[in-house]
Amino acid sequence: MMALLELFLTFFKIGAFTVGGGYAMLPFIQEEVLAHGWLENSDLINFIAVSESTPGPFAINIATYVGSEVGGILGSVAATLGVVLPSFIIILIVARIYDKFKSSSAVKGVMTGLKPAVIGLIGAAVLSVAETVFAPNGLSVSIFSEIGTYVSLIIFALSAVLAFKKVHPIIIILISAALGIASGYLL
Predict the structure, then answer these.
(1) Which burial class, exposed, middle or buried, applies to 21 when counting CB atoms under 10 A from its CB (0-12, 13-18, 19+)?
(2) Same structural domain for residues 57 and 37?
(3) What is the pLDDT of residues 64-120, one digit of tens each?
(4) 142, 135, 147: which is closest to 183 by C-alpha?
(5) In this structure, are residues 38 and 70 in contact, taking their beta carbons and an 8 Å threshold?
(6) Lowest mean pLDDT among 26-30, 90-94, 127-131, 134-138
(7) What is the tally of structural domains in the chain?
(8) pTM for the whole thing?
(9) Are 151 and 53 in contact (CB under 8 A)?
(10) Which structural domain, as residue segments, surrounds residue 58?
């Protein structure tokens, strides 16, 4: 029962204090999950990839997965409710009062300040995931002797090019998965 409460409170805190959605939550989720010892970093990174290719909001997918690993179905429910409830409560409150305050210079200032913070949090998440994918054993010259590094870089570059060319994300995910599977069989 304590594990369920801990899951709920941890994900409630993540949901309450992270602005900008699932990707902005990623550094906070990573820090909390690893600090509690609920998952290894490599397992979390693997599930980040899975949650990207499955339907549903990113943060909810991760919360549900971590909750399932820690406490089964009840753990999934506890973590998912924890991450969703703060947003639900905040949106209800904001929806009631936003029209009254949307022209306020303080509200405009808050929105101006939050945008770069969200971009910074997303950037930190990208760097953290990139480090785990491209240099899981630390950054050193030896990573350039591993074929997996080049396969990952090729898939990354191809995905970036396709994304800039406005190829549908599902197509990019399917191509990346196919290339990953093929490289797994060939390596």
Answers:
(1) middle
(2) yes
(3) 999 999 999 999 999 999 999 998 998 898 888 877 877 888 888 887 888 888 888
(4) 147
(5) yes
(6) 134-138
(7) 2
(8) 0.60
(9) no
(10) 2-134
